[in-house]
Write a structure and sequence with these properties.
mainly beta, Elongation Factor Tu (Ef-tu), domain 3, eight-stranded antiparallel beta sheet, 1 helix, 10 strands, 7% helix, 45% strand
Length: 133
C-alpha cells in the first residue's frame, strides 16, 4: 500500500528568479488555465464536433502575509507594469512546474489593517501559461 505525502515546504514560487517567502496560512498559491482546452458542440441530429481552444492564458493567485519581504517586489512590478517570469514548482509527488515567462500583475490585493495580520492576495496573469507534470 502506497501512502502519498504532501509537504507545503516542497512548493516554491519564483518571480523573476527570486523565491517568494511569507505565504499565507492555507492555500498560498492557486494556478488555473483561463479557458478549457476543448469545447464540445452537438448538432441538432446528434453529430458531435470538438473545437480545440488555443488560448495560452492562465492565472496564478498568490496569498502572502502582510509581512512578506516580497510584497514590495510585487508592488514594484505592478506599478511599473513590468513583464516578468513566474514559476510554481512542486517537488512533491507528482512533481509539477506551472507558470510562464510572460506575466503581469492583474490585480493588487486589498490592504486591510486590524488587530491581527491580514493576508494579501495578488492575481497574476500569465500570457504563456504552461503546466508540466
Amino acid at each position: 500500500m502506497s501512502i502519498g505525502i504532501y509537504d507545503a515546504k516542497q512548493v516554491s514560487v519564483i518571480v523573476n528568479g527570486e523565491y517568494l517567502t511569507g505565504f499565507g496560512e492555507n492555500t498560498f498559491v492557486a494556478c488555473e488555465k483561463d479557458e478549457e482546452h476543448t469545447v464540445t458542440h452537438v448538432g441538432a441530429r446528434g453529430e458531435v464536433a470538438i473545437a480545440h481552444k488555443n488560448n495560452p492564458l492562465g492565472t496564478i493567485k498568490l496569498t502572502l502575509m502582510s509581512t512578506s519581504p516580497q510584497l514590495s517586489l510585487l508592488h514594484k512590478l505592478a506599478r511599473e507594469k513590468s513583464m516578468f517570469s513566474i514559476w510554481v514548482v512542486s517537488h512533491n509527488s507528482p512533481r509539477e512546474r506551472i507558470g510562464g515567462t510572460q506575466a503581469v500583475i492583474k490585480k493588487l490585493p486589498a490592504a486591510n489593517y486590524g488587530a491581527e495580520l491580514e493576508d494579501r492576495e495578488f492575481e497574476i496573469q500569465v500570457l504563456d501559461y504552461t503546466h508540466a507534470v
